[in-house]
Amino acid sequence: MRRLFWLTVGATAGVVAVRKVTRTAQAFTPAGLASSAGGIGDSIRYFADQVRAGMVEREAELRDALGIGGDNADGRGPGSHDLPADEAADLIQRPSAPRSSRRSST
Fold first, then answer.
1. SS3 state at 16
2. Which residues contact 33 (CB under 8 A, 6 or more apart)?
3. Is the distance from CB of 43 to CB of 57 less than 8 angstroms?
4. What are 5-52's pLDDT values in tens digits?
5. Domain assignment of residue 103, yes or no
């Protein structure tokens, strides 16, 4: 009876070990690596898209604040500077600082 118990324990341990080794080996095959890297690639792509969107938004804010680029919202052409002196000085001294919101020209 004791031998049968130890035979069963040994067989169970062997099956568990073989399944774990097989699962670990599968993770390091090209297909296993590709499936685990797929989530990382999506995350990197999402991050890059968010950075690009932030860059475009910030560039638009700077162009609007400095009055360069295309036509302004009120129809005036490029080069029409309607930025108050204190805001222009702040923009020059701290160009990467966050701004509260885009100003609407009135």
1. helix
2. 27
3. no
4. 999 999 999 999 999 999 988 888 888 777 777 778 888 889 999 999
5. no
- State pTM to two decimals: 0.39
Question: How far is Cα of residue 44 from the mean position of the Cα atoms in its chain?
Answer: 6
Q: What is the pLDDT of residues 39-51, one digit of tens each?
A: 788 888 899 999 9
Query: Distance (Å, rounded) from C-alpha 40 to C-alpha 84?
Result: 45
Q: Are 102 and 64 in contact (CB under 8 A)?
A: yes
What's phi and psi for 32, nearest 5 deg? -65, -40
- Residue 47 has which token pair? 């991050």
Spatial separation of the C-alpha atoms in residues 30 and 32, rounded to whole Å:
5
Instruction: Please state, in angstroms and rounded to a whole number, the distance separating the CA atoms of residues 61 and 90.
Output: 14
Contact 73, 105 (CB under 8 A): yes
Residue 45 located in a structural domain = yes
Host domain of residue 61: 2-93
